[in-house]
Design brief:
Layout: E1 4-15, H1 18-31, E2 37-44, H2 49-56, E3 59-62, H3 71-81, E4 84-89, H4 100-107
Parallel strand pairs: 1-2, 1-4, 2-3
Length: about 130
C-alpha cells in the first residue's frame, strides 16, 4: 500500500490495559481531523483486549510468545506495519486532544524531526 504523508499512524502497545485503551482509542477516533491509522500491539491479553479491538475494527498485532515482549518491541512492530510517513508513539493510557493531529502535521517542516509532547499526571509512581 502507498505511504501517506498527510496522516499519522498511532502506535499503541498494550498489555492487559483494556480499561485505559478504550479511552485512548476513542479519543483518537473522536478528536482526529484526519484519516489517521491506529495500530495496537497486544503484548498480553487476558482482559478482552483483542475481542474489543475486533469489535471496533482496530488493526492489531499480537505477541506470538507466551511471555511479554515489552513496550519497545511493540512500538517497533507497529512502526513496521505503519502505512504513513508519520508515526506517533502513544501509550494505552494517553488521551488525544482535539486538533493534535492537524497541529502536529502543520508544524512539521522537515522529515527528519522528532516532536515530543508532555504527559501530565498525578504522582502515581514511587520515586526511582
Amino acid at each position: 500500500m502507498q505511504q501517506s504523508t498527510n496522516n499519522i499512524t498511532f502506535c499503541i502497545p498494550s498489555k492487559n490495559n483494556l480499561r485505559y485503551l478504550k479511552s485512548c482509542i476513542n479519543s483518537i477516533i473522536e478528536n482526529s481531523s484526519l484519516d489517521n491509522q491506529i495500530i495496537v500491539y497486544v503484548d498480553v491479553d487476558n482482559d478482552g483486549t483483542k475481542e474489543w479491538l475486533k469489535l471496533k475494527g482496530i488493526k492489531y498485532l499480537e505477541n506470538d510468545l507466551a511471555l511479554p515482549r515489552g513496550i519497545a518491541y511493540g512500538y517497533n512492530r507497529c512502526i513496521e506495519a505503519a502505512q504513513t510517513d508519520l508515526v506517533c508513539m502513544f501509550h494505552a493510557d494517553m488521551y488525544m486532544a482535539k486538533g493534535f493531529d492537524t497541529n502536529l502535521i502543520k508544524h512539521i517542516t522537515d522529515k527528519k524531526v522528532v516532536v515530543s509532547a508532555t504527559r501530565i499526571e498525578p504522582p502515581l509512581h514511587p520515586p526511582g
